[in-house]
Amino acid sequence: MTLSRILGAAAALALVLPSAATSRDRYGYGYDHYGHRHHDNSGAAVGAVLGLAILGVAAASASKRDRDDRRDWGDAYSPDRDITCYRQQRQCFWRDQFSPDWTDRQFGYDPYDRGGY
Amino acid sequence: MILALALAAAAAAAELPRADAPPLVHMDLSATDALKSAMKASFDPGQINMLKSVAHQQAVVVTCKGFTVDKARFETEMALLYDDAKGKPKVLTAAQRVALDKQAALGFGLALGAQIAIAAYDEKAFCASAERERATLGFKHAVWVKQVRE
């Protein structure tokens, strides 16, 4: 089930990512290397497989009883009910699920000065 | 100003006792760590944060019913990868542009694969969380189409 979803998502990326890249031409780059509709989606597919592999390792370590690796991600705090935020990782979770909303609220990046934190 | 308010809010929040992260959080943070390591040479922290957020939302679309990505919003967000830290378009050669495209695809794929795997751990909870997030849609990098009330 999961593999088929990933393959489906990778196929969707073949359509979406070049569009994202060419959209920049509207802002004045003046060239478009996708002009001939060349779609190279291999990076996304490799990335998806890597993502799965990483999760496999993480899940294994999380469930291992006598683990020798750490699941201590540093200081955490709760800015609201059911929300947990990790300072060093700058990520927030709602009932253990990643929350883009709370991550943005707590650690939002200024889109015009993204590297300044 | 915004940063000061965020820091003040964080300071007022309740500190949690130091403890191992729950399995799902550990999985997510491990994948995020890997994403940061793989992308830091090409993108800044804000861009990597955007990649994860957008990939997470795409994972919701392929996992949960009733979610759709707004193509224009998606394109706008992904175009941030071609800006410098001040929000100005980078001046790139064709070869540099191709290299950046490949890094973007790799990073997006990595984050997407990880988020889909996380979703599979508990789809019901994953989708419930997404429904809650969509109710606001006020966060940066939101690419979902707003829910149509029936």
Short description:
The complex is a heterodimer of chains A (117) and B (150). Chain A is built from 3 helices and 4 strands.
What does this structure look like?
The complex is a heterodimer of chains A (117) and B (150). Chain A has a 4-stranded antiparallel sheet, with helices on one face. Chain A is an alpha+beta fold and 117 residues long. Chain A is extended and about 40 Å long. Chain A has helices spanning 2-23, 42-63, 100-107; strands at residues 76-78, 83-86, 91-94, 97-98. Residues 18-39 and 65-69 of chain A have low confidence and may be disordered. Chain B has helices spanning 2-12, 23-39, 45-63, 71-79, 94-121, 123-134; one strand at residues 14-15. In chain B, helix 5 (94-121) packs across helix 6. Chain B is 64% helix and 1% strand. In chain B, 41% of the residues are buried. The interface between A and B is large, with 84 and 92 residues. Strand 1 of chain A pairs antiparallel with strand 1 (14-15) of chain B.
Q: How many DSSP helices of chain A?
A: 3
The main pleated sheet of chain B reads as: none
Structural class of chain A: alpha+beta
Which percent range fits the helix content of chain A? 40-55%
Low-confidence stretches of chain A: 18-39, 65-69
Find the biggest chain interface. A-B, 84 and 92 residues
Count the DSSP helices of chain B: 6
**What is the CA-CA span between the terminal residues of chain A?**
39 Å
Mean pLDDT of chain A: 65
